[in-house]
Write a structure and sequence with these properties.
The chain is of the alpha/beta class. It is 40% helix and 16% strand. The protein has one domain (8-168): Rossmann fold (3-Layer(aba) Sandwich), CATH 3.40.50.12780. The strands form two sheets. It has a four-stranded parallel sheet with strand order 4-3-5-6, sandwiched between helices. Strands 1-2 form a two-stranded antiparallel ribbon. It is globular, with a radius of gyration of 16 Å. It starts with 7 loop residues before the first helix and ends in a 16-residue tail after the last helix.
């Protein structure tokens, strides 16, 4: 397999050097390993779930987390595989910065790691006309969890749709939209 796009890396690792510890995150004080197989499978499920939510190529999805998390990598690859653009954000941004970036990038969804970030984004949600929803990695009462997107993509009979989109994505296509502290 020739690696031409960022989402080719996990697939290449799966085919040529699968690992039991492709990704490792500390969860409640315990290191949790994610194998290459699980990483690719979850990224594919996330991609299928995004298609179920109506995500199209060039749509923007923001991700912000206060700690390193395996889920971030799964979402990032899943977003790219359907031709959407990930918008990684700093967890220390102010409400005004979230408002500006989410509007400027025209984000459809944002995935946050925890309640603190959820509260900050929820405070500006109504100011962002393109924002359809906020998901969280952590379980927060009344807040959709990113696992719901994985569940939407659980049926792998639609993987051919993801694969078809992946084939159309060129190495020169935008994968991520990064707002630096100087651009906000």
């Amino acid at each position: 397999m020739e690696i031409k796009r960022l989402f080719d890396f996990p697939q290449n690792q799966l085919e040529n050097n699968p690992r039991e510890d492709a990704l490792v995150s500390k969860v409640n004080g315990t290191w949790v390993k994610t194998s290459t197989q699980e990483y690719v499978a979850k990224a594919n499920a996330f991609s299928r779930g995004l298609l179920q939510l109506g995500i199209k190529p060039q749509d923007k999805i923001a991700i912000v987390t206060s700690t390193n998390r395996t889920e971030w990598n799964i979402c990032d690859i899943g977003i790219q595989q359907v031709g959407a653009i990930s918008v990684p954000l700093y967890p220390t941004l102010s409400e005004d910065d979230f408002d500006y970036i989410l509007n400027n990038a025209e984000c459809k969804f944002i995935i946050v790691s925890d309640k603190g970030l959820y509260d900050t984004v929820a405070a500006v949600k109504d100011k962002v006309s393109t924002l359809v929803g906020i998901y969280s990695f952590d379980e927060i009462a009344g807040v959709p969890n990113y696992k719901e997107i994985l569940d939407l993509g659980e049926d792998n009979s639609t993987q051919h749709e993801v694969d078809s989109i992946k084939e159309m994505i060129k190495p020169s296509d935008m994968a991520t939209l990064i707002y630096t502290s100087g651009t906000t």
